[in-house]
Amino acid sequence: MNRRKSITAVAAATISSTIPAAAASAGIQLHVDLNVDPSKEKELLKNFASTFQPTIKKQPGFIEVKLMKLRTVAKGVGPVNTNFRLLISFQNEDQRQKWVASDDHQKVWPSIEKTLRGEKLSAVLFDLA
Asked: Is 2 inside any structural domain?
């Protein structure tokens, strides 16, 4: 075996072994539109940072979670009854479903849900490309 092929083979093996599983599979992303009571916005932000986010990060297959506050609709029609959007990404839908059914989710989701009003939420699931 020549030296160049050996170095290339070792480099390829090293790179492939360091790529996280999340990168190997595109995954799924759930967009949850939330209608948060403005008087409970600080409570939502605190609960997300101190309870929800640390708990979901420990789940098998977890990729990412973000909480976004709607600023403005730049073009077209914006989401109805929504002032926050929760983005949750997992490697696959089965792992996300296990998270939803878990005791951890049952403990932390009420801290988010109690800040909602009226038409509480809508959820849309995407496959990541």
From this structure: no
Specify if 14 maps to a domain: no
Q: Give me the residues paired with residue 61 across strands.
A: none
Contact 32, 84 (CB under 8 A): no
Q: Does residue 93 lie within any of the structural domains?
A: yes
Residue 9 in domain: no
Paired strand residues for 33: 85, 122
User: What is this structure's pTM?
Assistant: 0.77
The CATH number of the domain holding residue 81 is: 3.30.70.100
- The CA-atom distances, in angstroms, between 107 and each of 21, 27, 42 are 27, 25, 20
Can you read off the two tokens belonging to residue 68? 């976004």
Q: Using one digit for the tens of pLDDT, what is the confidence trace for 4-57?
A: 333 333 334 433 344 444 445 689 999 999 999 999 999 999 999 999 999 999
The pair of three-digit structure tokens given for residue 119, joined into one six-digit string: 């038409």
Determine the Cα–Cα distance for residues 87 and 124; give it in Å rounded to an integer: 10
Residues spanned by the domain of 94? 23-127
